[in-house]
């Protein structure tokens, strides 16, 4: 992707051509504003342990309001991925109270969890792209799961992949992409279904600072269209370039900033 | 399109399944065919043999007179439809396999045999008839085939039960193989499965992917098994036709029997699919 900067990722260019809000709204639609849920995530004294090991997360109390954009930082092994797993309902707390989209997770039946999961977009730390599917099919997956109209799916996916600069690679396998390109496919897949909540685990781990900066700008654009965004990273320099509130994990505990800053981008 | 592509079946995990199903269907078809043919044959034997008796008059000086007397007595008995003394030539033919043709038979004192058909509406008191014939000659015998028929039917029934037990065991073994195969496939595709799960796929959606795959493999295996069975049964029927005897001539399948054999691949596909479904649902229930 280094070789084709000018054409490959125009959307990530911080110039005047970036992020036409019209496109963003058309592709992503509006997120939570319409629903009247003001607390997207609520944790009260949540603790997590894997098996019989020690608690990797302890006494986590956290309220994430609609309309927020957070960074989540902490040393390697501090539990960032674990906290995000809790949020995308892939891990259940061993104690404490947990609400997602207003639903008490302990009381939600197994049949109702998928509906909640579908409203959450996840960029996994290790991407988790399926190498036996084309890039196009990878990105289309959430829409097909939701049973969307196939023609609309085709249009939206093509448009979004164009938008992240991979429009020419639709039918290639993700294995043929560079790390940074795979990351963009992972991001496209996370946002294609217009999630109300976007959780990104080290989305800038594989790219240089300049592209990392652009990726965060992309998330900000999504945020502007109504998606709550939480970005886990241990790139402190990157966090400092933006003025979003920062959740810090240390010693298995979460330190929530006292004052919540508003968008600064 | 995405549905079937999500779980590629190029993996080794499932490649053996169609062949196992083919073998199972082959065995199941053989067992069913044998069971059905025996059932059919038993019915025919019963109606054929139950409606006939044979009267045997040992050779003596006044054989012809005794034959006439017996024939008359039989004709006068109510419930007997037809009385037909066998010709010497016919008796000779019956004995031919044992004695060979030619002069020997001509020299032997042959018994007289009378073929008696009972009428289906009226039952005949065979004991009274035997007593009546004994008055003509104490050595005159009635063979009503009942003992032999009873033994044959008992044998045939126990064979049929054995075939049924075989079928049950084949189903059981097939389920076990499918469970292990599905678990292996599930593990091989854990990456896809857990991704779909996190993205909000219902358990039933994921289970359906495996169900479809298993059903196709079951059907494929079933059809292979059926093809092999058809060839085997054809060969067997040719061999049985060579025997020409009254016993094996009856070992044929009715159209209904053939149809139920043809349904075996569908049953195999159904069994495979349902087993795969239950296995995957159980595996998924362990995911948070
Ligand atoms: N599946 C698991 N089983 C057991 N322990 C686990 C598991 N996943 C994580 N852990 C442990 O939980 C702790 C937190 O791990 P986690 O992956 O959440 O950290 P992280 O902050 O995301 O680290 P990194 O920055 O390296 O990605 C670690 O000590 C890790 O060993
Ligand atoms: Mg992590």
Structure characterization notes:
The complex is a heterodimer of chains A (265) and B (288). Chain A has 265 residues and is an alpha/beta fold. Chain A has one domain (8-36, 68-91, 119-258): 3-Layer(aba) Sandwich (Rossmann fold), CATH 3.40.50. Chain A is built from nine helices and ten strands. Chain A has a six-stranded mixed β-sheet, with helices on both faces. Chain A is globular, with a radius of gyration of 18 Å. In chain A, 42% of the residues are buried. Chain B folds into two domains: 3-41 and 160-285, no CATH class; 59-139. Chain B is an alpha+beta fold and 288 residues long. Chain B has eleven helices and four strands. The model of chain B has no long low-confidence stretch (mean pLDDT 84). The longest helix of chain B has 43 residues, at 146-188. Chain B starts with a helix and ends with a helix. Chain B is elongated, with a radius of gyration of 31 Å.
Please provide a brief summary of the model.
By secondary structure, chain A is of the alpha/beta class. Chain A contains 9 helices and 10 strands. The longest helix of chain B has 43 residues, at 146-188.
Bulk shape of chain A:
globular
Distance between the termini of chain B: 28 Å
Number of domains of chain A: 1
> Widest sheet of chain A: strand order?
6-7-8-3-9-10
Q: What spatial form of chain B do the alpha-carbon principal axes imply?
A: elongated
Number of helices of chain A: 9
Order of helices and strands of chain A: HHEEEHEEHEHHHEHEHEE
Low-confidence stretches of chain B: none
Strand content of chain B: 5-15%
Number of strands of chain B: 4
Order of helices and strands of chain B: HHEHEHHEHEHHHHH
Fraction of helical residues of chain B: over 70%
């Amino acid at each position: 992707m280094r070789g084709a900067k000018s054409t490959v990722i125009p959307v990530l260019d911080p110039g005047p051509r970036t992020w036409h809000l019209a496109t963003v709204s058309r592709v992503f639609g509006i997120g939570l504003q319409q629903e009247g849920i003001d607390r997207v995530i609520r944790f009260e004294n949540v603790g997590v342990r894997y098996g019989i090991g020690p608690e990797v997360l302890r006494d986590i109390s956290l309220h994430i309001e609609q309309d927020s954009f957070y960074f989540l930082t902490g040393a390697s092994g501090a539990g960032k991925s674990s906290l995000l797993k809790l949020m995308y309902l892939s891990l259940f707390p061993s104690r404490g109270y947990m609400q997602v989209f207003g639903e008490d997770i302990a009381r939600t039946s197994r049949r109702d969890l998928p509906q909640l999961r579908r409203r959450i977009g996840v960029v996994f730390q290790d991407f988790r792209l399926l190498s036996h599917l084309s890039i196009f099919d990878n990105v289309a997956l959430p829409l097909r799961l939701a049973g969307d109209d196939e023609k609309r799916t085709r249009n939206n996916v093509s448009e979004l992949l164009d938008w992240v600069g991979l429009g020419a690679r639709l039918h290639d396998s993700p294995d043929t992409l560079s790390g940074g390109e795979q990351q963009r496919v992972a991001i496209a897949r996370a946002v294609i279904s217009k999630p109300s909540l976007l959780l990104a685990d080290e989305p800038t781990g594989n790219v240089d600072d300049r592209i990392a900066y652009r990726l965060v700008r992309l998330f900000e654009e999504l945020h502007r269209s109504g998606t709550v965004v939480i970005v886990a990273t241990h790139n402190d320099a990157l966090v400092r370039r933006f003025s979003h509130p920062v959740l810090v994990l240390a010693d298995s505990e979460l330190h929530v900033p006292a004052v919540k800053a508003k968008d600064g981008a | 399109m995405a549905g079937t592509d999500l779980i590629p079946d190029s993996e080794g995990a499932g490649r053996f399944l169609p062949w196992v199903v083919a073998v199972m269907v082959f065995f199941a078809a053989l067992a069913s065919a044998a069971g059905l043919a025996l059932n059919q044959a038993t019915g025919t034997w019963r109606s054929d043999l139950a409606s006939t008796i044979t009267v045997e008059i040992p050779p003596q000086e006044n054989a012809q007179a005794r034959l006439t007397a017996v024939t008359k007595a039989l004709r006068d008995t109510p419930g007997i439809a037809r009385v037909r003394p066998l010709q010497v030539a016919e008796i000779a033919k019956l004995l031919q396999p044992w004695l060979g043709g030619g002069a020997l038979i001509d020299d032997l004192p042959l018994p007289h045999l009378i073929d008696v058909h009972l009428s289906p509406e009226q039952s005949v008191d065979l004991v009274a008839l035997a007593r009546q014939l004994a008055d003509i000659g104490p050595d005159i015998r009635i063979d009503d085939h009942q003992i032999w028929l009873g033994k044959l039917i008992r044998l045939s029934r126990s064979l049929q039960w054995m075939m049924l037990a075989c079928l049950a065991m084949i189903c059981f073994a097939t389920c076990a193989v499918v469970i292990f195969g599905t678990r292996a496939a599930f593990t091989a595709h854990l990456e896809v499965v857990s991704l779909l799960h996190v993205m909000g796929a219902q358990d039933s959606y994921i289970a359906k992917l495996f169900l479809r795959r298993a059903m196709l493999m079951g059907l494929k295996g079933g059809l292979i098994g059926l093809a092999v069975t058809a060839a085997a049964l054809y060969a067997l029927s040719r061999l049985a036709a060579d025997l020409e005897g009254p016993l094996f001539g009856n070992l044929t399948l009715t159209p209904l029997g053939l149809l139920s054999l043809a349904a075996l691949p569908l049953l195999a596909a159904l069994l495979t699919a349902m087993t795969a479904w239950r296995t995957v649902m159980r595996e998924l229930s362990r995911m948070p």
